[in-house]
Amino acid sequence: MEHDVTFDLYQQLLRLDDCWELRRELDLWRKFETAAWRTVDRVVTMSEQDRRLVTCTPAITLANGVDLHRFHPAADVPDPRRILFIGSFAHRPNVMAVEFFLKQVWPLLHDAALHIIAGARHEQYAVAASLSQPGITLDGFVADVRPAYQRAALVVAPLVASAGTNIKVLEAMAMGKAVVSTPAGVNGLDLTPGEDFVLVHTAREMADAIETLLATPAGRARIEAAARSRVERDYSWDTIARAQSALYRELLR
Predict the structure, then answer these.
(1) Where do the domains of the chain lie, and which CATH numbers do they carry?
(2) Is the pLDDT at 4 greater than 90, yes or no?
(3) Which residue in 16, 48, 55, 184 is a FRET match for 101, CA 20 to 30 A apart?
(4) Is the pTM for the entire model greater than 0.85?
């Protein structure tokens, strides 16, 4: 993977804050990426949404995926009100997601614990929200995130803008975790709201969904099982490898 369709991200950011710096970045990325597409025989995207953005060159979708042997449900009982967010602060949308969650969602929750894994050198990135509030644990680089998934009762993806696809959502689902996400958090993923994950649009909806899932283990277990089944069916490395091999055979003819 090289990178996301970055001009798509800047189009989203412009809808949130229309300023000349973002417009300039959008113009530069659009020119760079569309010029790069013209130099290759095929462009591979991770979602149908991205594929539709590609012009001038044939494009194919090979979905993102997860190692189902490494990421799998654990027998350990999670902490009853522990929420997990994973996202490197080096990627601006993750910082925006944390700001949204801490400013608008966190104050609506009670007696919850929030674990944030922010990636290497996270201190270098400004976050317009307090990360030192009671109940919040902040980690930087974590070599193995599986214990963090195992301890979490559920996982949140509160993104307000996103490009590409969110591999952390697929990892959480593979671990058998219920995910509460905004539309941007599952951008490009072909998932079914209400079955594979819980879709929310506002801070209040996210807080209510979190409280409901934390209070109803049986309902949460239903989503957890469906999440694992979905990644087994559509997002395993074996499935993606077969599609990748077919693409290589086509190009070699």
Answers:
(1) 6-61 (no CATH), 82-234 (3.40.50.2000)
(2) no
(3) 48
(4) yes
